[in-house]
Specification:
4 strands; alpha+beta; elongated; 67% helix; 192 residues; 4-stranded mixed β-sheet; single chain; 6 helices
């Protein structure tokens, strides 16, 4: 029960930090969008003054180009905001072992990955060498073998059936699994 409360506290903290990064990205996005829209408006106005039929064709071409540039800028901004958030989160994950609650986090990641593994049969748990002591202290079924060959911020990778089954429950994998959700959320914030 204490581990669950601890894990929930960690998740709340991570959510608060993610919200802060999102707010910063939103402010940057708004400023860039305003500038891009102003630039696009200047291009549209210049094209409208260009003349009759030729001017209208040129205006349409320039407007289309401006819209495409605006969309490209928004896409680059979205990618940059998401990458910035992921980089910041990865930097924070790099220090997770220093936290006093890391053993509980590690145990939860190990338990979740093992729960997914098919039974019966041999199971290999790959851990970072820095987590070998935590893995050794865990109560594991006899068919589980621990190997300290992983380099990660924390967590485990569980393999079974000679690698046909893999459960990557490293902190990096969990962060990457959230990348799509983060991209959608930032994209919604950037919508006009």
């Amino acid at each position: 029960m204490k581990d669950r409360a601890l894990a929930e506290a960690i998740l709340r903290r991570a959510e608060a930090e993610r919200a802060q990064v999102l707010a910063e990205a939103t402010a940057t996005a708004s400023a860039l969008r305003a500038r891009a829209q102003a630039d696009a408006e200047v291009v549209r106005a210049a094209a409208a003054a260009a003349g009759q039929a030729r001017g209208r064709r040129e205006a349409a071409r320039l407007c289309s180009r401006a819209r495409m540039e605006l969309l490209a800028n928004e896409a680059r901004l979205l990618d940059a905001a998401v990458q910035q958030a992921l980089t910041r989160a990865a930097d924070m994950l790099a220090t997770v072992r220093e936290r006093s609650d890391y053993p509980a986090i590690f145990q939860r990641l190990l338990d979740e990955a093992l729960a997914q593994a098919p039974r019966p049969g041999p199971i290999t748990v790959h851990v970072d060498a820095r987590d070998a002591a935590l893995a050794a202290a865990a109560v594991l079924p006899p068919e589980v073998r621990v190997v300290g060959d992983l380099r990660c911020a924390g967590g485990v990778i569980v393999e079974a059936w000679d690698g046909a089954f893999v459960a990557d429950n490293t902190l990096e994998a969990r962060l990457q699994a959230q990348a799509h959700r983060l991209r959608v959320q930032v994209g919604r914030l950037l919508e006009p």
